[in-house]
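1st attempt posting a full record on here, be nice pls
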Amino acid sequence: MKLDGIAVFVAVAEAGSISEAARRLRIAKSVASDRLVELERSLGATLVHRSTRKLSLTEDGVAFLERASAALRELDAAAADLAERRGTLAGPLRLSAPVSFTRLHLGPALYPFLRAHPSIELTLDLDDRRIDAQAEGYDGVIRHGPMHDSRLVAWRLARSRRLLVAAPDYLARHGSPDSLAALNGHRGIFYTHRGIADWRFVMPGRTVQVRAQVGLRVNNGEVMRDAAVAGLGIALLPMFLAGAAIRAGSLQVVEVGAVTEEEFIYIAHPEGRRPSAKLRTLADCLRAAFGNPPYWESGLGAPSPAA
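the predicted structure (as tokens):
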């Protein structure tokens, strides 16, 4: 058996296709296919069912995958340990992160980290959907919001306050709601990955969900912010998106006597997988870059208490 064949098999199992596995490994699809065939020949077993629609693992493939994945992780960890002994952070690091947060904040924080550790080979995939870090082969995922996936171990990087905001023009035309009940009569701008049920607020001893009228549903936070600035409705936005617009006066905080549930910017890795020194060092660098409280909340004051 050759290690490059095992790496292709594990990548195919995680990606669900040879072409995607080849892309992740940065090799030609034909090379990936040849390595997989050679591995099956050396094992004397068929590991993957091939069809025109999709690939799936055979029983032998399922049995081989767990140990093959563990072996590759151990080899990666051994190589990383040697690099650490030499005082160097090196090797591949594959992350998933949200689009708008990366463009506005994560990217500027990452660039100094990569300059300081030029031997790290970072692959950064931008995607706002919820990622299965284990199945999709990520070393870590960076997200904002609550933690729901118990298969992930999360490290907090910064708090992520969310506030209701609207353009002064919209509030002048439609009035400014002063209670949760008053929100029902207003148009809302909603993030499709959370849905209209996302407007949940913490009151003494209970959580209240509000469903405003749908003005716009969209899967990008910056478009939500821009739609709010254009006066299309009220949006519930994280401060890393809305802070600058609030300070500039193009958005105004809507006070309804309640705050949203506590959320965070976090980096998470699959449970049961030892996080590398690269990931731990990156987390420390990001915490320092974002600050506590995070710099994007500067000048916005403390959260309003629940009524």
